[in-house]
Amino acid sequence: MQLQKLIVATGNLHKLREIRGIFSETEVISAAEAGFEEDTPETGGTFEENALIKARAASRALGLPALADDSGLCVDALGGAPGVYSARYAGGHGNDKANREKLLRELSDIANRRARFRCAVALCFPGGKEIIATGETCGEILREEQGKNGFGYDCLFFSDDLQKSFAEATAEEKNAVSHRGRALSALKEKLARLREE
């Protein structure tokens, strides 16, 4: 199954850059660039459901293969929270500082700070074919912010792989071990297997 053109249902330039790097042999364009600017509500209860909702909407609207992802931080001691609510953990959507402050408050007296970033990617085709892949990267939540790079919870997430916070890592270091990078690589492997069938 060869992808000539791939629509990505995101306005996030970090994500677009990462996806373009992994699907370098495919023309990757954002849904907005292709003329689809509808804000699709993420009403799913899992990362997989939210990724499918967004990819289906873009694929149906444009008649092209569309990819979307949903990801978040899952903290063991909080029963997997903030999970699908990572971007709006403190209430408003995308208030990174408030989200981090709430997380630190909730973990203030907790010794177990194990956590993982999880990502689900969904690729939907106009004919109805759907492929889902997931990836995760493990670490723990720091007691204070470290590093200036990245975004979201990166400055609180100490990576097992890198032995430093994601915000202390270069973009290349982070992408090499990131949950999204692993999910996209797994998706690419699934696509390659489909081509061989």
Describe this structure in words.
The chain is α/β, with parallel strands linked by helices and about 200 residues long. About 30% of the residues lie in helices and about 25% in strands. It is built from 5 helices and 7 strands; from the N terminus they run βαβαβαββββαα. The chain has a 7-stranded mixed beta sheet. Helix 1 links the parallel strand 1 and strand 2. Helix 1 runs parallel beside helix 5. The mean pLDDT is about 90.
H and E order = EHEHEHEEEEHH
The helix-and-strand class reads: alpha/beta
- Count of strand segments: 7
Outline type = globular
Low-confidence stretches: none
Strand order of the largest sheet: 2-1-3-4-5-6-7
Main beta sheet, described?
7 strands, mixed
Report the mean per-residue pLDDT as an integer.
92
Helix tally equals: 5
> Strand fraction band?
15-25%
How much helicity do the residues have?
25-40%
Beginning-to-end CA distance, first to last residue: 9 Å
Which radius of gyration do the C-alpha atoms yield? 17 Å
Short description:
With 197 residues, this protein is an alpha/beta fold.
Layout: helices, strands, pairs:
Blueprint (H helix, E strand, L loop, with lengths): L4 E4 L4 H10 L4 E4 L16 H16 L3 E10 L20 H11 L7 E11 L5 E12 L15 E3 L4 E2 L5 H7 L1 H18 L1
Parallel strand pairs: 1-2, 1-3
Antiparallel strand pairs: 3-4, 4-5, 5-6, 6-7
